[in-house]
Amino acid sequence: MLLLAVAFIVAFVLLLYMVSPLISPKPLKLPGAHVVVTGGSSGIGKCIAIECYKQGAFITLIARDENKLLQTKKEIEKYCVNDKQVVLCISVDVSKDYEQVENVLKQAQEKLGPVDMLVNCAGTSVTGKFEDIEVNSFERLMAVNYLGSVYPSRAVIATMKERRMGRIVFVSSQAGQLGLFGYTAYSPTKFALRGLAEALQMEVKPYNVYVTVAYPPDTDTPGFAEESKTKPLETKLISETSSVCQAEQVARVIVKDAVQGNFNSSVGSDGYMLSILTSGMSPVTSITEGLQQVVCMGIFRIVGLFYLGSFDSIVRRCMMQREKSESADKTE
Ligand SMILES: NC(=O)c1ccc[n+]([C@@H]2O[C@H](COP(=O)([O-])OP(=O)(O)OC[C@H]3O[C@@H](n4cnc5c(N)ncnc54)[C@H](OP(=O)(O)O)[C@@H]3O)[C@@H](O)[C@H]2O)c1
Ligand SMILES: *[C@@H]1O[C@H](CO)[C@@H](O)[C@H](O)[C@H]1NC(C)=O
After folding, report:
1. Is the pTM of this model over 0.85?
2. What average pLDDT does this structure show over 146-167?
3. Which of 69, 91, 171, 298 could serve as a FRET partner for 10 with CA atoms 20 to 30 Å apart?
């Protein structure tokens, strides 16, 4: 009986492996490809641009600050692998006006050819308690992090479908997989990217266009340093339960997953656990990936509950300490 069950499982897995080439995308060839990186002048975006440039791609960097763009262009050009390679800089706000974004992308495509890979990495963050965050910050974050990813993607998707090839990358965050203290303005913008990515992937998969959602952990970047200045104590203590990653490492993983056409891209053991736990109804790009999700989900939920418990106790401890010091102030 047991033998029969084992034989059945083995046969099933073999069958899955036989059909797996049907669902696995063909890798994108980076040499000579045109890669557009929004937010390419700093942090993770800059490292993604460098990583692609090192592999022979032509790069378009998009951000607002022209000086920062030019400085980054020089930095990237040091990694040149052939003398035809170009780094193009475009200064535009990706969140303001769709027509403008469409226009600059048209110009970039006239110079460097159709976009093979678009990396939506422009983003920003505000942390604080819900009631302390300015109402316009909620609007601004949604505009930059969400609409700022919709506009460039909307501008390149038709050509990608026509050419029957392409990659779109959305840089979400681990805060786009779970909501944490202090992230009431930021998390929803990153969750939104996941919904967009799932729906878009179903539309474009038959056209051989693949979508990747990256969920970076805390990463050492200028943006992260800026955010850390105003983080509530609770958010800091919760963040400290995992370590800070290097932008180069995060970028390498994102580029690798995008080239392979993987839907999910995560870094580290926390990232691995979160991507399994939140796989839900997201598309699967290999049988191994699907099997890992099926096998690990229950166990990881138990581990996750311990994390949640410890986060809750951090928040409660901070509240009690705050109230104690407030009442001490009053009696003085
Ligand atoms: N660092 C982390 O810990 C972390 C963790 C998870 C996810 N992420 C996400 O990863 C992405 C990059 O983060 P990072 O830390 O590398 O950021 P960063 O160092 O602050 O760089 C942000 C980049 O986006 C550009 N940008 C910002 N607003 C823009 C706009 N409205 N239009 C065009 N460009 C804009 C910035 O250039 P200008 O200011 O000149 O426009 C800059 O090039 C973000 O989406 C962030 O949410 C970061
Ligand atoms: C998500 O992507 C990472 C690599 O970026 C991989 O190691 C992991 O297995 C993936 N997780 C799931 C659930 O597919």
Report:
1. yes
2. 98
3. 298
Beta bridge partners of 60: 36, 88
Q: Provide the mean pLDDT of the chain.
A: 95
Instruction: Map 248-267 to HEC letters.
Output: HHHHHHHHHHHHHCCCEEEC
Query: Which residue's alpha carbon is at the smallest distance from atom 11 of ligand 2?
Result: 275
> What is the band of 102 on the pLDDT scale with cuts at 50, 70, 90?
very high
Residues 6+ apart with CB under 8 A from 76: 46, 49, 50, 53, 59, 61, 87
Sorted by sequence, the CB contacts under 8 Å of residue 172 that are 6+ apart come out as: 190, 191, 193, 194, 213, 214, 215
8 Å CB contact between 156 and 150: no
What domains are there in the chain, each with its CATH number? 27-297 (3.40.50.720)
Pair of tokens at residue 236: 């800091």
Q: How far apart are CA 119 and CA 251, in angstroms?
A: 11
- Cα–Cα distance, 29 to 37 (Å, whole number): 17
pLDDT tens-place string over residues 209-241: 999 999 999 999 999 999 999 999 999 999 999
How is the beta sheet containing 166-171 ordered, strand by strand? Answer: 87-91, 58-63, 34-38, 117-120, 166-171, 209-215, 264-266
pLDDT in tens, 240-299: 999 999 999 999 999 999 999 999 999 999 999 999 999 999 999 888 899 999 999 999
| Rounded CA separation 39/219 (Å) | 15
In whole angstroms, what is the distance from residue 122 CA to residue 139 CA? 16
* Contacts of 69 by beta carbon, 8 Å cutoff, 6+ apart: 40, 41, 61, 63, 89, 90, 91
> Does residue 144's CB lie within 6 angstroms of at least one atom of ligand 1?
yes
Q: Is the CB of 276 under 6 A from ligand 2?
A: yes
How far does the centroid of ligand 1 lie from the alpha carbon of residue 15, in Å? 43
Q: Is 207 a catalytic residue?
A: no
Q: Is there an atom of ligand 2 within 6 Å of 289 CB? A: yes
